[in-house]
From TrEMBL:
This protein's name: Sodium-dependent transporter
Domain of life where this protein originates: Bacteria
Main location: membrane
Topology in membrane: Multi-pass membrane protein
TM region positions: 13-32, 44-66, 87-111, 149-170, 182-204, 224-249, 261-286, 320-348, 360-384, 390-411, 431-455, 467-490
Entry keyword set: Membrane, Transmembrane, Transmembrane helix, Transport
Organism of derivation: Microbacterium suwonense
Localization per Swiss-Prot or TrEMBL: Membrane
Length: 506
C-alpha cells in the first residue's frame, strides 16, 4: 500500500510555490535583455501575444493534466495513456540536467552576495576576478574535462545541495510550501528595494529610455517573435513537468485557471520590474564609463557576474545593491530549483512507492554528485553553458511539441481537459483554448525547434571542440529520449492505479 499522496497546505501556498518556480534567473537576467534586443517598448506586443496565446494556455494545459490525473509527470501521462509514460520521464530527465547546473549558479550568486559586501574582486578587476580568480576557468579545448576542484566555487555548491536536500526531505507541505512562504515575500521586498535604489542612480533615466524606447521595426523580424515565444515557455516553467507535479498536490475542488492567471501575471510583473531595475543600473554603468547603454547591455552570466560587480564597485551604496541583487538571485534560484527537484522526486516516489525521505536521498544525492563532479572544476562554465543552450533549444521545445501533439491529436484529450478546467474554475476556457493548445502551440514550437536545429548545425555552438558539443550538447539531448523510453519500460511498484489513491477517480 503506497503512502497517502502529499498535498500543499492550501491553494495560496500552491500559488506562491508556482510563482516561486516561475520567477527565476530567467526573470532577472534573461528577460531584460531579450526585451531590449527585441524592440524595447515595442517588445511588449510580441511578449503579450506570446503570453496570452501560448504561455497561459499551456500553463492551463499542464495544470489540467497534473490535477486531472493526480500524479507526477510519468504517472499523469501514464494514466492518460500507457504509451504516453515516456513523455513524463523525458521531462524528469530534463529536470535532472537543469537541476545539476541551476544549483551552480545559485552557489556562485551566494558567494557573490558575500563578495559584494566587501568588494572582494578589487575595483576595476571585476571580469578578471570572475573568470580567473573565482572560477579559475580552464580551456576544454586544451585540457579536456578537468578534475581539478575549485574550492571557492565547489564548497558553496555543496552547501546549496545540503540546503535543498533538507527542504526536499521535509516534503511538499513542510518543505517546499514553507520555503516558498518564507522566501517569496522576502524576495519581493528585496527586489522592490533594489529597483527603487537603482532608479536613484545617476544615469538611471538613460537606462530606462534605452529599455523602453520602442523600435517598431523589430516587430517585422520573425526572430523577435520567436524570441518572445521561446522566452515565455521558459519563463512560465511550462512543459518541464513542474506544473504537472505541483498541481497534482492540489485538492480536487480548486480554481485552476484563476490560480494560473495569478501565477502568470505575477511572473510577468517580476520580469518588468527586473527590466526596470537592471536597465536603470546599466544606465548608471554606461554613464560612469562614458559610453551608451548599448555598449554595456548584456544578459546571463556576463550581466550578473561582470556587469553587476562593476556597478557595485562604482555606485554609492553599491554593496547594498550587490547584496540585494545576488541575494535575490539566490532566493529566486532556490525556489525554482526545488520545483525542478520535485519533478524527479515525485516521479520516483510514484513509480517505486517509496517514502519521502528515502526517495529524496536516492534522487538528490546522485544529482548532487553529478552536479559537483561537472561544476566544481575549472571547466564548469563550458559544461554549464553548453548544457543550458542545448537543453533549452531542444529538450524543452521538443518535449512540449511532442506532448501537445500526443495529447491533442493522437489521444484527443483536449475536450476532456477543457471540461476538467471548467469544472471548478472562475475563468472558463473553450474552443479558443483548444485551438491555441492544439494548433497554434505545435506550429510555434515546431518552428522554434526546427530553426534551432538549423542554427546549431550551421554554426557549432560557442568555440568548444566538436567532441565536447557531441557529449554535452547533442549526445546529452539524444540520450535523454532513449533513457526516458527505457525508464517507462520498468515495472511500477508504487501507485499506478486509481485504487491506490482515494482522490483520483478514473
Ligand atoms: N521559470 C524560470 C525562470 O524564469 C526558469 C525555470 C525553468 C525554473 C525551469 C525552473 C524550471 O527563470
Ligand atoms: Na520566469
Amino acid at each position: 500500500q503506497a503512502p497517502r499522496r502529499e498535498a500543499f497546505g492550501s491553494r495560496n501556498v500552491f500559488i506562491l510555490s508556482a510563482i516561486g518556480s516561475a520567477v527565476g534567473l530567467g526573470n532577472i537576467w534573461r528577460f531584460p535583455y531579450v526585451a531590449y534586443e527585441g524592440g524595447g517598448g515595442a517588445f511588449l506586443i510580441p511578449y503579450l501575444c506570446a503570453l496570452l496565446t501560448a504561455g497561459i494556455p499551456l500553463l492551463f494545459f499542464d495544470y489540467a493534466i497534473g490535477h486531472r490525473f493526480r500524479g507526477s509527470a510519468p504517472l499523469a501521462f501514464r494514466r492518460m495513456h500507457r504509451a504516453a509514460e515516456p513523455l513524463g520521464w523525458w521531462q524528469v530527465l530534463i529536470c535532472v540536467v537543469i537541476a545539476a547546473y541551476y544549483a551552480v549558479i545559485i552557489a556562485w550568486a551566494a558567494m557573490y552576495t558575500w563578495f559584494s559586501a566587501q568588494l572582494s574582486w578589487g575595483v576595476g578587476n571585476e571580469e578578471g576576478f570572475f573568470f580567473t580568480e573565482f572560477l579559475q576557468m580552464g580551456d576544454v579545448g586544451k585540457t579536456g574535462l578537468s578534475a581539478q576542484f575549485v574550492p571557492q566555487a565547489g564548497i558553496p555548491l555543496i552547501l546549496v545541495w545540503l540546503v535543498v536536500i533538507v527542504i526536499m526531505a521535509l516534503g511538499v507541505k513542510r518543505g517546499i510550501g514553507r520555503a516558498n512562504m518564507v522566501l517569496m515575500p522576502l524576495l519581493t521586498v528585496m527586489f522592490v528595494i533594489l529597483v527603487v535604489q537603482s532608479l536613484f542612480l545617476p544615469g538611471a533615466m538613460e537606462g530606462l529610455n534605452a529599455f523602453f524606447a520602442p523600435n517598431w521595426a523589430a516587430l517585422a523580424d520573425p526572430g523577435v517573435w520567436a524570441a518572445a515565444y521561446g522566452h515565455i515557455f521558459f519563463s512560465l516553467s511550462v512543459a518541464f513537468g513542474i506544473m504537472v507535479t505541483y498541481s497534482s498536490y492540489l485538492k480536487r475542488k480548486t480554481d485552476l485557471t484563476g490560480s494560473g492567471l495569478v501565477v502568470a501575471f505575477a511572473n510577468s510583473g517580476f520580469e518588468i520590474l527586473a527590466g526596470i531595475g537592471v536597465f536603470a543600473a546599466l544606465g548608471f554603468m554606461a554613464q560612469a564609463q562614458g559610453t551608451d547603454v548599448a555598449g554595456v547591455a548584456t544578459s546571463g552570466i556576463g550581466l550578473a557576474f561582470v556587469a553587476f560587480p562593476t556597478i557595485v564597485s562604482q555606485a554609492t551604496g553599491g554593496s547594498i545593491i550587490g547584496v540585494l541583487f545576488f541575494g535575490a538571485l539566490v532566493f529566486a534560484g532556490v525556489t525554482s530549483l526545488i520545483s525542478i527537484l520535485e519533478v524527479i522526486v515525485a516521479a520516483l516516489q510514484d513509480k517505486l512507492g517509496w517514502g519521502r525521505i528515502r526517495t529524496t536521498m536516492t534522487v538528490s544525492i546522485p544529482v548532487a554528485l553529478i552536479s559537483l563532479a561537472l561544476f566544481s572544476t575549472t571547466t564548469a562554465l563550458a559544461v554549464l553553458d553548453t548544457a543550458d543552450a542545448f537543453i533549452n533549444a531542444f529538450g524543452i521545445m521538443a518535449v512540449a511539441f511532442v506532448a501537445v501533439i500526443v495529447v491533442a491529436w493522437l489521444l484527443g484529450r483536449l475536450p476532456a481537459l477543457r471540461d476538467h478546467l471548467n469544472r471548478r474554475s472562475s475563468f472558463h476556457v473553450g474552443w479558443i483554448w483548444m485551438l491555441l493548445v492544439g494548433a497554434l502551440a505545435p506550429v510555434v514550437l515546431g518552428y522554434l525547434f526546427v530553426s534551432e536545429i538549423i542554427a546549431k548545425v550551421n554554426t557549432p555552438y560557442g568555440d568548444y571542440p566538436i567532441w565536447f558539443l557531441w557529449v554535452f550538447g547533442w549526445g546529452m539531448v539524444i540520450s535523454l529520449v532513449v533513457l526516458a523510453i527505457l525508464l517507462s519500460l520498468l515495472p511500477w511498484s508504487g501507485r499506478s492505479h486509481a485504487k491506490d489513491d482515494p482522490e483520483y477517480d478514473e
